[in-house]
Amino acid sequence: MDRASRVLAWYGLAATLALGAVGCASTTRIYVNSTGQTNDGNTLYMMIRTVDKMTATERYQEMVGKMFMDPADPSVAVTKPIFPGNIESINIDDGDKKDIVLYFFFTQPGSNWRVPLRKPLPAEIHIDLGRHQVERVQVRRR
After folding, report:
1. Strand 124-129 with 27-33, pairing
2. What percent of the chain has pLDDT over 90?
């Protein structure tokens, strides 16, 4: 193979790898819809956390503690206030190999205060918050 062919082959390989890297990186868009009655009209917090293993035994107070740790808990990816009556949106990179859990910290939480999501993450997630818990989750796959 002559020098020009090797250079072209190298550039072709580099372009393929670059396109592959771009194709692998994807983003999940999360929409959170609340009403004026959500959390009795009081601001609440949302936390997004990466997890190695899904578990149903997480305690509410333990998760609230993770949100306010100093130094920050490395598993916490995002914290965001939710203002009742508004729609909030968040982008999450799907680059991490771990599953994620979305937590909603209501003043008087109902039984549905978290939303677990397994990999691969969907393109979009629409979450409707009720008065004291998550009322509906809609997922749009890629």
Report:
1. parallel
2. 65
> Three-state DSSP class for 119?
coil
CB 54 within 8 A of CB 99: yes
User: In this predicted model, what pLDDT tens digit does every residue of 55-90 receive, in sequence order?
Assistant: 777 899 999 999 889 898 999 999 999 999 999 999
Cα distances (Å, whole numbers) of residue 72 to 67, 77, 80: 8, 10, 14
Pick the CATH number of 27-140 from 2.60.40.4150, 1.10.10.10, 1.10.3720.10, 2.50.20.10: 2.60.40.4150
The total number of residues written for the chain in this structure: 142
